Amino acid sequence: MRRGHGTVFWTGFAVIVALLIAAPLVLTEFWRRFVTEILIWGLLAMSSDILIGYTGMVSFGHSAFFGLGMYGAAAALLTIDPPNLWLALFYGLVAAAAVAACVAYFSTRLRDIYFAITTLIFSQIFYVIIFTWTAVTGGENGLAFERPPLAIPGLFDFVLTPTRLHWFVLAVVAGSYLILRRITQSPFGMVLQSIRENEARTRAIGYAVERYKIVAVMLSGLFAGLAGVLYALQNQFAAPDFVFFLVSGETVIYNVIGGIGTLVGPIVGAAFFLLLREGLSRFLTQYYLIPLGAVFIAIVILMPQGLLGFMRRWLNE
Amino acid sequence: MTVNPSLAAASSAEVAEDGKAAALLRTEDLTIRFGGLTALDHVNFAVPRSEVCAIIGPNGAGKSTFFNCLTGVLHPTSGAIFFAGADITGLPPNKISQKGIARSYQITNILPNATALENVRIAAQSRRHSWSLFSHHRAYRDIIEKAEAALDSVGLLGKAGEPAANLSHGEQRTLEIAIALATEPQLLCLDEPTAGMSAAETHDTVQLIRRVAANLTILIVEHDMHVVMELAGRITVLHYGAVLAEGTPSEIQQNPRVIEVYLKT
Ligand SMILES: Nc1ncnc2c1ncn2[C@@H]1O[C@H](COP(=O)(O)OP(=O)(O)O)[C@@H](O)[C@H]1O
Ligand SMILES: [Mg+2]
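Above: the input entities. Below: the structure tokens describing the complete assembly.
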């Protein structure tokens, strides 16, 4: 029974990864880029699920982690010659981790709406800093840079073509998914779920709840920063828009649409939302937000467990 | 009248060690006020190691509040709590749990969506491996075996895979005790463990507590007088937050002040 479940999981995982590997070979450049971006937004949404779905803390500050990952990568790519992919990753993750440590320290003492608001305020502080500190961040115009090569000295040195970038993003997102999945099943992950279910009880059986929350925010911020680095590589620019709270809001929406506490759900949610927005905006130009909002409300009311939860139940019946 | 300060400090630690028959838990003038209400009023109380002690008293006497102070949920206004010779006043609940005090709640307090086994496993895990991030929790057989042993000791092993919310009220009350046992406490505090139970379930729970008491010190708050008389070696009566009487069950049953305020009603 357990083994059977594992086989189904790995088969499904292999099929989806295979399809995503093949995607850039058959899709036009527009749709290739679309799929790459879905993977990146999916990683951002998945990182936020660690807090929303597993720990029961709604973060409205993920744009800060994402944006700092993006600006960290930009800093490395603009200041280090020749541009180095691994240093871009390193800078991005360090920047995101620094912000996450700051947010974690101040916001995890608070619960529920107070936590959400604190994360929102923090992300807006970073937005304002980035927007106004024109000398360093380029302000409103952001920063543009070149894509670094995908290279390990002495082993290989590839130009990062769009297709190779897609594969690189896929590898990072798939790897992150497997790591996050394992973390959610680990003893630590079980403590997070216990906090979600009953915080006071979790404390009473001996857990220093605040410390687990701090580590959860740090982990979540780190993976959100990773998504920011990938986005910088994909679009070759960093802009303050990506630190704005709208990005955080959309991250929460992906989670709610796809189904929280599932990791895969948020990716499905991101894909569904972005595809729907693309389709609707083609036919309805500037009015597309109205039907998009209606669909979102319908999903929240009709499928409270999100698309993935709904599909699961539908498959079981 | 001059006292050597180091001697004074040493003696206060020793009282816990050998003064009052090696009390495992001791409170000194424990007082807590909620606004104008004094819920605990200079409570001096001790639980000797390996005994079963009970606290009784009318509704609102401050029994649950006393437990909340012991377990760090509430901070006393004044006074001190000593456990195993160490001052634990004002420590947070998680630290007190790690020191070896476990409790069950008057109002069932479990993880409703987790299985019975997971409720107990997560408690057992709080002592070991809890910071492991990259191994599956099922890989730690020692924790699962400890959890299964705790479930078995309360007779719930057959329901291990059942979501806790699906258990009957009585079973949920017993699961509470299993959760507390899984943290391997020295002192187990039970807040009305038989509340809302049928006569048969109450009987089973009394047997369970008696079995558990073989290796533990137990402090029990109970409404059911039969349960208290059957289990406790010593009884303390709380009334309006103050200790009204203390003694063996028969002493308490014959104490005229106790009869007046409590036993008669
Ligand atoms: N957190 C609190 N805030 C204010 N009053 C409280 C609080 N907890 C308990 N009380 C009050 O303290 C008194 C003792 O309550 P409690 O300890 O629950 O009594 P018991 O468990 O003996 O029935 C009651 O009057 C109750 O209303
Ligand atoms: Mg009570």
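Note for the figure: Residues 166 and 189 of chain B are 25 Å apart (CA to CA).
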